[in-house]
């Protein structure tokens, strides 16, 4: 039985039940939240553990076959999973629908990191690898999983824009700006996969591995806005600042983050 994890999630709003069936749905949603948080911590720890593996085993840090991938993907997916479990609690939606979306997202994150880690231990590329039937199966599973991530995160983004998110001053803006920037990460990620698959299918395997480099900064910068901006809004709510001042600060931070994304996009266009 899962025990409660102290202090892993930031405080989230309590939603009133709207029907007799709602308490059960809320209970299931709470269980999914806890599973998501534990899974996120597990992914982060596995990523950090591979830093130790890299220190012992050595080898190249860059390239399609390296310990960098289980490290960066484990930590990034873990942080994103924990962040999404928290920030979506401010998005007005049914408890059952949120539990389904978050549950699928959790399973998909574990699947993606698991596939990448498996291939790292096998000493072969995880993405765009069609060398054997097994490698092709893993690669296509990761691609399909990436597509599901796009669908799930887009669904959460739509929900955030359909109805005004709850929370302290600036939280609604932080969530909407964070999800909007996250869509840039999804588009750039899909672009990397599409270009890599095309080059692989046309017999340019080595070019496929290097083709994703220009979009990696854009993808990385835009991926975590959905955590950084809401976290800022939450932190400001713990200060004595007025609601107007906090909202202006979040607006300025969202604008600065947007400029960073634009700069990464310009760099991607120039180096493509």
UniProtKB/TrEMBL annotation:
The entry's keywords: Membrane, Transmembrane, Transmembrane helix
Residue numbers spanned by region Disordered: 1-21
Transmembrane stretches, start-end: 38-61, 73-92, 99-121, 141-161, 173-198, 218-237, 249-270
UniProt keyword Oxidoreductase, yes or no: no
Coiled-coil region list: none
Record bears the keyword Transmembrane: yes
Domain of life: Bacteria
Protein known as: Integral membrane protein
């Amino acid at each position: 039985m899962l025990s409660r994890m102290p202090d892993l999630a930031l405080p989230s709003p309590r939603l009133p039940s709207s029907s007799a069936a709602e308490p059960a749905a809320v209970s299931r949603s709470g269980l999914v939240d806890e599973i998501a948080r534990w899974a996120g911590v597990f992914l982060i720890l596995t990523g950090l553990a591979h830093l130790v593996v890299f220190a012992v085993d050595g080898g190249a840090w860059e390239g399609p076959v390296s310990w960098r991938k289980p490290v960066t993907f484990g930590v990034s997916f873990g942080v994103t999973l924990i962040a999404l479990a928290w920030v979506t609690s401010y998005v007005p939606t049914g408890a059952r629908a949120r539990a389904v979306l978050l549950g699928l997202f959790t399973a998909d994150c574990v699947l993606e990191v698991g596939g990448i880690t498996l291939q790292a231990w096998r000493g072969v590329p995880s993405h765009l690898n069609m060398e054997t039937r097994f490698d092709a199966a893993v690669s296509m599973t990761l691609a399909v999983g990436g597509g599901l991530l796009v669908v799930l995160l887009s669904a959460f983004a739509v929900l955030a824009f359909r109805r005004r998110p709850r929370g302290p001053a600036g939280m609604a803006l932080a969530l909407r700006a964070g999800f909007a920037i996250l869509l840039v990460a999804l588009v750039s990620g899909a672009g990397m996969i599409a270009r890599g698959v095309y080059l692989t299918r046309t017999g340019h395997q080595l070019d496929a591995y290097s083709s994703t480099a220009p979009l990696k900064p854009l993808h990385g910068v835009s991926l975590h806005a959905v955590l950084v901006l809401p976290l800022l809004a939450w932190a400001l709510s713990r200060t004595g600042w007025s609601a107007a001042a906090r909202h202006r600060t979040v607006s300025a931070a969202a604008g600065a983050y947007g400029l960073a994304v634009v700069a990464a996009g310009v760099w991607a266009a120039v180096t493509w």
